[in-house]
Fold:
Amino acid sequence: PLSSGDANNVLFGFGLTVKGYVEISDFYINGNGSTYFGGGRLFRSDDEIFSEDDIQISSNVTFNASQVRVILSETLQGFDADGETKYYFLVADYTNENGNVNSTIQFSFTPNQANPAIRLSNPSSTKNGFSIVGQTFSFAKLIKWTGNTSTACSVRSNRTGGVTPGINDVAYIGSQTIA
Structure:
């Protein structure tokens, strides 16, 4: 599960094959990430595996109530028989410590979604008749050790929220540098 503070989470990936010349202006990806994510970025790769070598092509990412909008200026040219395939990865940071940890989220493209999955600026058109469904993510509550009451692990008031971590929680016990 994802927990608050997790950075650089790959939330959704997809490939796009182009035959000819197109300019892409927007992607609309289904999924309500507004409660959980910030710092969204879109990366492009020549292969289907996300890595640090991939190129960030947009940081203009907005997580809305039902869709993620990515604004970009991307030109693709595929003039051979197979076209050109590029892979895209939506990456974001889990920033909300107080999100609903008992829920899940999934990002997708679906036929006839609220806004077209792909908006082209040249030639001017939209693409929306396909389905790509990403993995399902769950969320973990981050419970931090405070040690406010004592040094005993069994004392609940020594942890944020006064709760004992469960199997879907992340327990954070700080470290200390000793000189």
User: Anything to note?
Assistant: The longest strand covers residues 67-78. The mean pLDDT is 87. The two ends are 35 Å apart (CA to CA). The chain is about 0% helix and 50% strand.
